[in-house]
Amino acid sequence: MNAPTLGLRQGELEIRQFLRSREQVVFTLLFPAVMIVVFGSIFDGTIGDGVQFTQYFVTGMIATGLMTAGFQALAIQIPMERDRGVLKRLLGTPMPKWVYFAGKVLMVAFIAVLETIVLIAVSTAFFGLTLPDTGTQWLTFCWVSVLGITACTLCGVAFSSLARTGRSAPAVVTPVALVLQFTSGVFFVFTSLPTWMQNVAAIFPLKWMCQGLRSVFLPAVFGAREPGGSYELAKVAIVLGVWCVAALLLCLTTFKWTTKRDG
């Protein structure tokens, strides 16, 4: 079996396992949509330049969906598999190590695409989200999403080494994900947050993912309300690219295949 086929088979296996877990499917795919419905029903005012709060919030939820599919899912799932000895058993098989990660990447890509479609469909159908109407906007949507999900996936793999056990993984990962959401312009208008909080959030990928997606779904004039006075797409690309490289290095140097008790 050649290398591409191995990767595709592993990806198919990971996707099948994901779809068999009803709880995981519901939380990953439907929870962000429910959040859009709840917040969209409560906050229906404008935040300036004719932009509804729902439009602003939806862009953040799409970015959050990408982060959940990449960072949060892998940072919890991998420690659980390590704790159950799945990774140790894989080391004893002829399967190359990269195939395991290829399967995870394909699973994350599948979830991210499906979740984004669900969020956009709900937002368009019930809250009047205006879809991009130019090729440039769609291109921006694609590269921001690809860079964002790549950075989040690599961060999830790297962060998976911090949890000592599979049981403790959700307790370690979930607070980090929630803090990033509250400080990165998902639930609140980013510029309404304290300056120090904005500066801290600017270190991490989610803030830049949200900002890049706002340039796609919000009017160009709204860019003047961003901290830098524009959407700063070049800076978005640079920061997300740096995170991809840094997280990849962390993955290569810190990833653990076994627990301490396995030796």
TrEMBL record:
Residues 23-258 form the ABC transmembrane type-2 domain. The keyword Ribosomal protein does not apply. This is Transport permease protein. PROSITE patterns: ABC_TM2. Belongs to the ABC-2 integral membrane protein family. It comes from Mangrovihabitans endophyticus. Its main location: membrane. GO terms for molecular function: ABC-type transporter activity. One of its GO terms (cellular component) is ATP-binding cassette (ABC) transporter complex. It is found in: Cell membrane; Membrane. It is a multi-pass membrane protein. Keywords: Antibiotic resistance, Cell membrane, Membrane, Transmembrane, Transmembrane helix, Transport.
